[in-house]
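User: Can you help me understand a structure? I only have the sequence.
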Amino acid sequence: MTDEILAEHTRQGRSTAFAALVARHCHAVYRIAWNVCASAADAEEVTRQTFLCAYHGVDSRPGGNSVRTWLCGIAMKKAAVQRQRTWRSPTVALEAFLPCFDAEGGLEPAGGEWPELGSVRLEQMNVAGFLRKALNDMDEGVRAAFVLCDLAQLPAEDAAAIVEASPEVVRRRVHRARLMLRGLLDRLWSL
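Assistant: Let's start by predicting it. Here is the structure, written out as tokens:
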């Protein structure tokens, strides 16, 4: 059955249809929550709240969005609220890892320095931990676009509807996130 048919059956009170929607979209919703929230427990709570909200709001679901986009939008909003409540970590300015160019247009190495790097060798690093911290330190709009497009694999048009921006703005934000992460990884590999 399609998502639309399952949503209609849910509207009619058939709980098995909603269970099928949850099974189909739980992974994408959790992935968004995990990449926005401060902890796995917060991500689990956001996932639960997303599906509760969807179940109770199935009658008022906007008709222009797909069910997946609608669920991802709820997850993003709930995760952002949860993050604001619980996130307390100091941030690192990831803009230092964006590419720079010299007067002739040649690429200069990123000058950013991650505070904890010091003299740590690559073999000793928790690269996934650095990437998670980098994702957490991104500007909210850049992080949201990156999570929706690159991690949840939504088209830019769907992500734009969720973050209430144009698809072009979403694409620019995703590109900015990729450049920052690439600069960070280049810096890590140069150690």
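Now, to help you interpret it: Helices lie at 3-11, 15-36, 40-56, 67-86, 127-137, 140-151, 156-163, 167-189. The longest helix spans residues 167-189. Let me know which part you'd like to focus on.
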